[in-house]
Structure formats: C-alpha cells, structure tokens
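This part of the workshop introduces the protein records we will be handling. The question running through the whole workshop is how a given chain folds. To make this concrete, we reproduce a full record directly below:
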Amino acid sequence: MSPTTRVSLIAIPDAVVSTLSGIYDVMNAGSMIDSRAGGAPAGRPFCIEIAGEREGSLDLASGIPIQVQRSIAAIEATDVVIVPSVLLQAGGWRTERYADLVAWLRTMHERGAVLCSACSGVFLLAETGLLNGQDVTVHFSYAREFGATFPAVSIHPEQALVVSGCREEFVSSGASTSWHDLVLYLTARFAGPTAAQSVARFFALQWHQDGLAPYIVFEGRHDHGDREVLAAQQWVSRHFAVASPVEEMVKRSKLAASTFKRRFVSATGLTPITYVQRLRIEDAKRRLERTAAPVDEIGWQVGYEDPAFFRRLFKRTTGLTPGAYRRRFQVPDFLSAVKESERLPGHIRSSQLPRDAAAGVRERRG
C-alpha cells in the first residue's frame, strides 16, 4: 500500500461544491480516522489537492468560492485525476471551453494516471476522446444529452460505478451521491479493502449495490416529431392500466399494426409493450412510496392481474422487489408521526421551549 497516492481533484467554474468538497474531505480524512473510529490504517493513503487552470480563488457553479491549490501547469504527473459533478445550464454542455485542461488530461493519461468522473463530470473527460469506445456512467437525467454530445461513448446511467479501459484507468460514478462509490472504490484499490470499510463506517457511506435503476424516473421520448406516435403516448400515459393497451393504441392510430410498432420503436427507442410496462412500473413505484396498499393490490391497480408476473417485472425493471423498494423510498414512520403531531392542538415543538425544558424533552424521549 502506498501512503502517497497523488490525487488531483479538478475545480472548474461549472463544478458543484457539494461533490467537490465531499470527495476532498473523505479522501483527506486519513488523519481523522483512528482505531476507535473503525480501524483505518495509520497515516493518509492519499495526498489530494484541488487543481485547476489557475491557482487562487475560483467561484463554482453555486457562486461559492473555493481555493485552487495548484495549477495544472505545475503538475507534471499524478496518480488519480477526479472531475467532480458539473452543473449543466439550459444550453447544455459547451465543448472546447477548457482546451488546456483537456490537453492536460490526455497527458496525465499517457503518464499512467487513472481518470475519474463523478456524475456529470464525465462530460469533461469525454472531451479528451479517450472514452470513445469505452463504457461509462452519468447522471440519468443527463444521459440523453451526453449520448447526443458524445455518441462514441457507451453510457450506462443505471450503474452506480463503471470501470473501463485496458488497465482499468477510467472510473465513472453515476447520479449525485454515487461519488461515495467512487471514493470507496479508489480507497479499496489504492489503500485496501480494510481502509475502504473503515472510511465507509466513519462517514456512514454505503455502496449502491443495487445500482441506480430504482432511482430513475421513466420519461418517454416526446421530441421525435411523429404525430401518430406522440398521440399514442399521450393517450397511454393516462390509460396504461386498461386491458390490451397496445392493441388500443394501434386501433386509435389507424395504422397497420406492423407499421405502428415499427414507427413507435423508431420514435421512442422502445417497443409499445415495453413502453406500457415502464409506465405501469413507474406508477407502481409512486404507489409504493406514498400508500400502504398491499403489493398485489398495487399490481392490479396498474394493470396486472397476475401478482407473480408483476413482482418479477418490477424486480427486472428496478433491480428491487416491490417490498424492498417500499422500504427504501417510503417516508419513514417517524416523519409521518411528526407531521401528525404537528396537527394536534396545543402541540409544542422542543425548539419552541426554553433551553432547560427542551433538554428535558430530549432526555425523556431518549
């Protein structure tokens, strides 16, 4: 294990402060974690610094300034480069703004560095051309735009972490806080599994072992320009639970069945039956999150008379069983209790009490 794995964390004006600072704090935490806090090895497995095109203060996407500790021009070699999440504006990612940085990334790769991205940071890495023909992940809400901007890169937004390249030198993490997976992976790779477990315990980080499919909200493509298909999509979005919805869409379109199905696939990228299934599962997800209805009843409500088939389809689509999905995403009971108590007449929250009285409330609850 090398105690001096060099990490260059890239700061650009588009960067998101929460991801950048979170990665920095966790990877710089070796000295904070001792045997009492999880048994991490002594010392710091990483030497991490915030790098950018120029040293000094830099305002990030949220307007919060951060200090760039070292310019890329002063970094001749590094072991790991991480591009954190970036905020895409309404116009999307604009290429060729960071020519010096892109050239530096190529040089670091040639000199053996592992290139990493968190969430949408993969947009910058893709500008190098090094990801062409490689597999990556990206935030699912940016997947379509990324695919259009970099069509030679294979994207898997349902994956929390993707490692690719002949020497596993490209590492990308998916949506939002899956940067946790990236940091834990790098810790395990460069400092060992025991160190990764210690970091996970200390910061209460969790691997997204089920992937990100449970988090993805299905939204079919509507920008394809096929009016008949669009009309069918609009109808089925309100009537997906009816019997034989595909046959009804074909009938309403006044097209031959084969023609309708061919055009539907061309426009949406999905077969009509798959599209219906995705709509049904999406509605089932909301019902599982927001109601206490039994799973079999929810399956019937969204259009499935066979409970076993519904459960299998739900697991295949989301990666979780309906019960596991409900446990993960339903509002916790204690929040429901708080909301109910706030409606009771005369209820007083501890924050409204004098300090001594509030402490007494906390003690009695504890």
Remarks:
- The longest strand covers residues 46-52.
- Confidence is low (pLDDT under 50) at residues 342-366.
